[in-house]
Amino acid sequence: MQIYNYTSNAKINLGLQILNKREDGYHNLHSLFVELSLADELIFTSSSDFKLSVDCANNYKIPLDNTNLISRAYELIRSETKLVPSEYAVHLKKKIPPKSGLGGGSSNAAAVLNALNELWKLNYSSNKLETLGAQLGADVPFFIRGGFQLAEGIGEKLTPQDNQILHGLHFLLIIPPFHISTPDAYRSLNKPLLPVENHYKFAPVSGPVNWQLFDNDFEKVFRKTYPEIGNIKEILQGAGALYANLSGSGSTVFGVFDNLKTAKLTREDFSCYQTFLTSPVFHS
Q: Which of 112, 203, 211, 235 is deepest in the core (most CB within 10 A)?
């Protein structure tokens, strides 16, 4: 029996602009994705057929049917080939909070695609895996290569960025005790079905960074509905965070710190919340 372990990392949106609604119902966006060391673990064990099991921290509710992106990713890449040397049972050790804006489900799907491409020796290129991932969800392609990337379109148009600005930084993640529905989040923005020719750009990701030029369109909307988000952000900023904001459509609020001691002390201010202190992932 062969057993293989793979990590499935979280991400945050360093900035997020929602540009317009598309005719297919999705929205065009402009965002910077940062892969983080906070991760789930996926354990692949050779088996006669595919099975999925889950070990969850904090009693997260994770479906085991074909609504789970792990199952869907397995079925998708399995459909690409007739013969494989072995099927696999997949066991998920879940640490990334679901529905928190950290991309855990999308990361799990990408990890399955990467893992099976390796285990089955399919030799698919990263571009091929990203194309498959886009069939599963807008954030899945990012996790095929991870790192630090500019995401455009619905998130599938990816451009690697210079990661020098991330060196020496620490990300304190604060998870409020509520979830924000992603479809509801987009509806709340009420973006028009119009082309967008010009849009605001983020701060340059090279040289000294003006962190105040980053923004998240959802944060502006949700500060009224969920004042707790604004309160957390203000505490992080007051504690010395270089930047603080919502990740994706939430509900995670993160603070960026260049001093680990300060980040650890600030974490103590949020003892009533679930928190993670993590750092960017750098790929060679």
A: 112
Shared-domain flag, residues 98 and 175: no
Q: What is the pLDDT of residues 17-57, one digit of tens each?
A: 888 877 777 788 889 999 999 999 999 999 999 999 999 87
Q: What CA–CA distances, in Å, run from 186 to 14, 138, 145, 178?
A: 18, 14, 26, 17
237 and 255 together in one domain? yes
Classified as helix, coil or strand, 220 is: helix
Range of the domain at 250: 163-278
- Residues 158, 134: Cα–Cα separation, whole Å: 12
Which residues are tagged catalytic? 11, 139
What stretches of 120-258 show up as alpha helix (H) in DSSP?
A: 126-134, 140-145, 182-189, 217-225, 227-238
* 283 assigned to some structural domain: no
Tell me if 75 is assigned to some domain.
yes
DSSP, res 248: T
Closest of 284, 202, 212 to residue 245, by C-alpha: 212
- The model's pLDDT over 249-260, given as tens digits with 9 standing for 90+, comes to 778 999 999 999
pLDDT over threshold 90, residue 244? yes
- Are 40 and 103 within one domain? yes
CATH number of the domain at 116, please.
3.30.230.10
Domain end marker among 160, 181, 210 = 160
What global pTM score does this model have?
0.91
pLDDT at 204 over 70: no
181 shares a domain with 147: no
Q: If you count them, how many residues does the chain have? A: 284
Question: Rounded to whole angstroms, what are the CA distances from 260 to 168, 228, 233, 236, 279?
Answer: 9, 25, 18, 14, 10
The C-alpha atoms of residue 27 and residue 162 are separated, in whole angstroms, by 26
**Which distant-in-sequence residues (6+ apart) come within 8 Å of 153 by Cβ?**
28, 29
